[in-house]
Structures are given as C-alpha cells and as structure tokens.
C-alpha cells in the first residue's frame, strides 16, 4: 500500500475543499492515486463545499453554554432557516459554544482549529464545518462569539435571539434581565455607555425634525437635547421599564436594586443582524433566462 503523505493530503484538500481526514481516507482507499481519490470525494461529498463557500449565511442560531463560572454565547449561521433546524447543524453549534467556554479561542479561526469530531468528520471543528457543508449542500459559518467568566445567566429565545449576562447577586433577577434584554434590545447598560455614534445619529435626526418647527434657535436646541435625553432612556438597560414590572413603571435599575443585584455586562446576539441578505427577484430571473434563450 502506498504511503499517504501530508503533502498529498494538502494537495487533495486544495483541489476539493474537503475536510482533511476525508482527504486522507480517500487517498488511503485509492492507494495513493490522486485522481481516484478526488473521484471518491466527488461521489461522497460532491462539489458542494467549494460552491457553497461563497454564499451568504444570514440565517442560523444563537446558542449558549455555561459551566460553573465560565460561559459563552455564539452565533452560527446557515443559508436557510431549514438548515438552522438540522440536527447535525445544531449539534455543531452547541459544541462550538462549549469549545469557546472551555478553550477561550482568540478568534473564529482559532475556534475552528480546536479538536472536534462529528458525523464522521474531523479532527477539527473547521473540518466538521466543511464536512457538513459537503453533506448538507449549504454554506454555514461561525460568525461571532463572546466568552465570559463570573456569575452568569443566559437566555435564548427561539434560537434566534441570545443573551448572556454577567452579574453579582440574585440569579433569578439576572435571568429576568437576560429575558428583558432579549425583548427590549437595549444598546448599553446605562445612558453613559451608549456609543457616541448612536447618540450623534439620533441628534442629527432630532435636529432635522426640530428645524421644521420654525421656532427660535434656542428653542430648537432645547427640543433637540430633550429628544436625545429621551432616546438615551429608551436604549439604556438601567432606564428601560422592566418588561415584567407589575405597575408598568418600575425600571430595570429599580428592580435590580430591590433584588440587591448588579448587572456588570450583557451581550446580545440576534441572528443575521447586520448581514445583508440577498433578495431574489424571481420575475427578473425568469426574464433574464428567457432573454438568454432567445439569444442562443
């Protein structure tokens, strides 16, 4: 039997974009014959992985993992909502969250290099990802993650919105805050923490509206400042009205004070947030195909 070298595996992987271990298995089965090994991989995985790699992944899931005082939140994307419900995809996403918590990778590339095997693919998480792309025929990616240490509470709503909260105090109150964040999506802990670019954007909008009033400049300035202050209260966690407030008035900061609890940070992920989705124009596509047919 021919010796299978690392360079042979690398060459086959470059040709097929198949996972490393799958390349090695194919070369072994083909007794080192590169062409035969490539054919075996094409039969097993098709050309799906390479073709899928460039497609937009704006669906997917957010999942969390907490073990003691270490936890993680991760967003793993797919092309369609259908695949986001696939058991293999969900197993990989859950495993990725655990790997982040336990190994503290520096970035997505480091996460992918961690040891992990699933569904016959491996030996790394990246190899499993590529293997599932070939198997399922749809692109998928690890978009972002956050690892925290301390007292942690997490809440995931319908797999598409995930929150992890770092706190001191009562765990039940912290879990309620995580649920609140998922529902109300604050921009920051307090008004002082709201990013300057968001404030400036709101100030610009408020100024444009106030200018239409035709009132004196000093009145317009007060109107703008009032609008900005109202905005800050609406987007800061501490000032928002708590979603479970019995009186409909209690703020999150008041609820936490009553529970003798402090929220130190929160991380909120919404699946696909900020990703530009491709909108298919079916009519335009049909028209283009008909035009191409006439020109043929």
UniProtKB/TrEMBL annotation:
| Keywords assigned | Cytoplasm, Elongation factor, Protein biosynthesis
Domain Translation elongation factor EFTs/EF1B dimerisation, first and last residues per copy: 71-273
Q: Which InterPro entries does this one have?
A: EF-Ts_dimer_sf, Transl_elong_EFTs/EF1B, Transl_elong_EFTs/EF1B_dimer, Transl_elong_Ts_CS, UBA-like_sf
Protein name, entry field? Elongation factor Ts
NCBIfam families found in the cross-reference section: tsf
Q: Is Kinase among the key words of this record? A: no
HAMAP family given for it? EF_Ts
Compartments, as annotated in UniProt? Cytoplasm
Q: Where is this region: Involved in Mg(2+) ion dislocation from EF-Tu?
A: 80-83
MF GO annotations: translation elongation factor activity
Q: Indicate the principal place this protein occupies in or around the cell.
A: cytoplasm
Taxonomy of origin reads: Bacteria, Pseudomonadati, Pseudomonadota, Betaproteobacteria, Burkholderiales
- One matching Pfam family: EF_TS
